[in-house]
Amino acid sequence: MEKNSFNMISLPENSPHKQETVCIFGAGDFGRSLGYKMLQCGYSIVFGSRKTKTSSLIPKGAEVLHHEEAAQKADIIIVAIQRQHYNFLTKLTEVLHGKVLVDVSNNLKINQYPESNAEYLAELVPGAKIVKAFNTVSAWALQSGTLDASRQVFVCGDDNKAKQRVMDIVRTLGLTPVDQGSLLAAKEIENYPLQLFPMWKFPIYLSIGLSAFFFIYSVIRDVIYPYVYDKKDVSFFIAVTIPNRVCPIVALILLALVYLPGIIAAILQLHRGTKYSRFPDWLDKWMLCRKQLGLVALAFAFLHVLYTLVIPIRYYVRWRLNGYVISQIKANRTDPFNNTNGWISDSYVALGILGFFLFLLLGITSLPSVSNSVNWREFRFVQSKLGYLTLILCTAHTLVYGGKRFLIPSMYKWYLPAAYMLSLIVPCTVLVIKFVLIFPCIDRPLTQIRQGWERSPKDSKHSCYNDSKSAV
Amino acid sequence: MEKNSFNMISLPENSPHKQETVCIFGAGDFGRSLGYKMLQCGYSIVFGSRKTKTSSLIPKGAEVLHHEEAAQKADIIIVAIQRQHYNFLTKLTEVLHGKVLVDVSNNLKINQYPESNAEYLAELVPGAKIVKAFNTVSAWALQSGTLDASRQVFVCGDDNKAKQRVMDIVRTLGLTPVDQGSLLAAKEIENYPLQLFPMWKFPIYLSIGLSAFFFIYSVIRDVIYPYVYDKKDVSFFIAVTIPNRVCPIVALILLALVYLPGIIAAILQLHRGTKYSRFPDWLDKWMLCRKQLGLVALAFAFLHVLYTLVIPIRYYVRWRLNGYVISQIKANRTDPFNNTNGWISDSYVALGILGFFLFLLLGITSLPSVSNSVNWREFRFVQSKLGYLTLILCTAHTLVYGGKRFLIPSMYKWYLPAAYMLSLIVPCTVLVIKFVLIFPCIDRPLTQIRQGWERSPKDSKHSCYNDSKSAV
Amino acid sequence: MEKNSFNMISLPENSPHKQETVCIFGAGDFGRSLGYKMLQCGYSIVFGSRKTKTSSLIPKGAEVLHHEEAAQKADIIIVAIQRQHYNFLTKLTEVLHGKVLVDVSNNLKINQYPESNAEYLAELVPGAKIVKAFNTVSAWALQSGTLDASRQVFVCGDDNKAKQRVMDIVRTLGLTPVDQGSLLAAKEIENYPLQLFPMWKFPIYLSIGLSAFFFIYSVIRDVIYPYVYDKKDVSFFIAVTIPNRVCPIVALILLALVYLPGIIAAILQLHRGTKYSRFPDWLDKWMLCRKQLGLVALAFAFLHVLYTLVIPIRYYVRWRLNGYVISQIKANRTDPFNNTNGWISDSYVALGILGFFLFLLLGITSLPSVSNSVNWREFRFVQSKLGYLTLILCTAHTLVYGGKRFLIPSMYKWYLPAAYMLSLIVPCTVLVIKFVLIFPCIDRPLTQIRQGWERSPKDSKHSCYNDSKSAV
Question: Which residues contact A270 (CB under 8 A, 6 or more apart)?
Answer without folding.
Answer: A442, A445, A446, A449, A465
